[in-house]
Automatic annotation (TrEMBL):
InterPro entries per record: SmpB, SsrA-bd_prot, SsrA-bd_prot_CS
The protein's role, per its UniProt record: Required for rescue of stalled ribosomes mediated by trans-translation. Binds to transfer-messenger RNA (tmRNA), required for stable association of tmRNA with ribosomes. tmRNA and SmpB together mimic tRNA shape, replacing the anticodon stem-loop with SmpB. tmRNA is encoded by the ssrA gene; the 2 termini fold to resemble tRNA(Ala) and it encodes a 'tag peptide', a short internal open reading frame. During trans-translation Ala-aminoacylated tmRNA acts like a tRNA, entering the A-site of stalled ribosomes, displacing the stalled mRNA.
SUPFAM superfamilies: Small protein B (SmpB)
Gene3D superfamilies: 2.40.280.10
Matching Pfam families: SmpB
Name listed for the protein in its UniProt record: SsrA-binding protein
Annotated source species: Clostridium aromativorans
Keywords, in A-Z order: Cytoplasm, RNA-binding
The keyword Zinc-finger is assigned to this record: no
Signal peptide coordinates: none
NCBIfam families noted in UniProt: PRK05422.1, smpB
HAMAP family: SmpB
Main location as per UniProt: cytoplasm
Amino acid sequence: MLKKKSSNKTLAENRKARHDYFIEETIEAGIELVGTEVKSIREGKSNLKDSYGEIRNGEIFIRNMHISPYDKGSIFNKDPLRDRKLLLHKKEIMKLAGYTTQQGYTLVPLSLYLKHGRVKVNLAVVKGKKNYDKRNALLEKAAKRDIDRQMKQKYR
């Protein structure tokens, strides 16, 4: 029997977000791009670091997402840091707006990926971690790694 391949291909990831924030909820959103931006993203020339979501006039935009200009794009290239509109249903936008009005919550993109030939964004509602939370997470990760190492040596 043949395995069905996953049609999702991760193009960019915001690893720092998982370290800096508690992730409350995630949602998949489309993103409004021009052709040269899509080509540049497919080449892996995008960066989600320091980017965040903002709700304006009932629409969600991603700010500070850097997409490098496409090499062969000439006059069709856009500003690398321009605001890009996210494509979501009105109910989803209102739900996210409810989260972000609470103190301490914000929208952060976790990853960019291809799904059936279209670029999608994994958007998360997050709450910031304190320094002691980050230290605890690192200690737990190290302890789990040690346990796994011991189990592997025991069953060799």
